[in-house]
């Protein structure tokens, strides 16, 4: 089969489009014919070797852990799945990913894909949407009537977070550059702050929750906009403990986990029209290098997806 692998860490040039042996599903696993693979910042972070400290990958490695496709072979235990099922999910980042014509996965990582969107849009969902879901609902316990500030509200994680918060009945303030203001408002934000010209901490006060996707000074400035006892959930890091004490706020760092039950709920929200995955760019598998360059530019609007099955 065709796949995109890395044999060494480095720039996008280390991504090699090549022939590799098609994997076989082990016990409790299924073989999925990949129709589309979502691209996430973790893909290029792994490619560059940034994740070496906590993910001990053996190389060569197939990147890309968001998948949507069709089950074509079952291992010993099918766990209720059958051949022909259209599924989507977040693959285990310790193993080969979905930049390939076929991938194997444990059945716990997948569920039936949303029926109302194609594979390209389904592949845009898992990692970004699970990160947003787990941040808002598992970690921040966001509830109806609360206010949340969502950084990078037009990005992969952010655009799902805005829609989930809105669905929950929370009031949403987002940060984005001017070109994305309309998009973020349409997703459900009441206010959008153009972070390139305005300081969010000058305009926002007393929010219940902040979703931080930037880290560094954006994270530390975010502590000032929380009400006492409020919480910041960061996709990148935790602030200094002394700053939390100083502002009387809480913080935590999300590490997105596969969760097929949550993906089922998210699929239902997509099928009922409450949530819409936004895909900015679709590229063929052979153009994974271009996809990485775009993702790495840090200004994706919604998601980038590799269409694997033409
Ligand atoms: N811990 C985890 O499990 C986990 C899971 C998922 C993601 N992450 C991390 O979370 C981060 C975000 O992921 P993502 O998939 O959402 O990334 P992404 O889609 O690449 O984010 C792109 C967005 O960031 C916005 N942006 C850039 N700089 C900004 C700033 N200073 N303030 C506000 N918005 C800004 C851009 O908006 P404009 O174009 O308008 O500038 C663009 O819409 C990445 O570092 C990723 O690795 C971690």
What is the element layout, followed by pairings?
Blueprint: E1 2-6, E2 15-19, E3 29-39, H1 41-48, E4 61-62, E5 66-74, E6 86-90, E7 102-106, E8 110-112, H2 119-123, H3 126-139, E9 147-150, H4 156-168, E10 171-176, H5 181-187, E11 191-194, H6 200-203, E12 207-212, H7 216-222, E13 226-234, H8 241-247, E14 250-253, H9 260-271, E15 279-284, H10 288-296, E16 303-307
Helix pairs in contact: 3-4
NADP nicotinamide-adenine-dinucleotide phosphate (NAP) binds at residues 40-42, 127-128, 131, 151-152, 154-158, 175-177, 180, 195, 213-214, 218, 235-236, 254-256, 295, 298-301.
Provide a descriptive summary of the structure in words.
- With 310 residues, the chain is of the alpha/beta class.
- The protein is built from ten helices and 16 strands.
- The strands form three sheets. Strands 3, 5, 6, 7, 8, 15 and 16 form a seven-stranded mixed beta sheet that branches.
- Helix 10 (288-296) links the parallel strand 15 and strand 16.
- The model has no long low-confidence stretch (mean pLDDT 96).
